[in-house]
Amino acid sequence: MSVLDVAVIIAAGFAAGTINTIVGSGSLITFPTLLVLGYPPLTANVSNNIGLVPGGVSGSYGYRHELEGHSRTLFRLGPLSFVGSVVGATLLLVLPPEAFKAIVPVLIAIALVLVLVGPWLQRRAAERSEDEAQPGWHRWALGVGIFVAGAYGGYFGAAQGVLLMGIFSALSSEPLQRLNAYKNVLSSIVNAVAAVTFVLFARGSIDWWVVLFIAVGSFVGGVVGARVGRRIPPAALRGLIVLIGTVAIVKLVAFP
Questions:
Q1: In 71-207, which ranges are continuous DSSP H helix?
Q2: Could you read off the pLDDT of 167-219 as tens digits, one per residue?
Q3: Are 210 and 95 in contact (CB under 8 A)?
Q4: Alpha-carbon gap, residue 120 to 176, rounded angstroms
């Protein structure tokens, strides 16, 4: 690995850590970068997943103020992300890439629609009485969505944040920045569980130098992303989510 390669990987990790904290889809930077540098797809995917874990931790910590007093929500949703990520990581190890990859653009497109209609849904919820603000089916629908997002993230990872924000926008009336904080924590759980699964069962596909350099870049990027993302107005944040999600769809469909 040349010095230039190291610099490129660290820079890609930094960009991915920043974008993951603000929106998600940072893997759309690091994964293609590793492919361009000549790494096999499975090695690139697995090493990238492990390397981005530190960025998720630093980004989640940066949003700690938005999470104060809301630990019960995370304790309820966290196990669903955990189980979903185990399922997704297992699928990656046992199924051909085409089996799951075909539905990825569809999931992202659905997520973008949910992000766009989220404000309207939240206004509808606010107009109801306090007892009716959150219909009963929202709770289990949110749980199912978090599980599916966890499985998706454990399998592929890119645009996981967009999918989570779409689900939250449709089924929760909480402020967008708090939802973004939930997203960071749940994404970190998914990536961490998938990383452990890969270390245990796909050790031969891991390039630890790549993991190290992406980890360094993503950790710093997570800190920067938290400082920037917490200052973005909700409307601008939604626009950024839609932009990144659209790029993800184009990338996956036009350049598979």
A1: 71-94, 97-101, 104-127, 136-155, 160-171, 176-201
A2: 887 777 777 788 888 888 998 999 898 889 888 887 788 899 999 999 999 99
A3: no
A4: 13
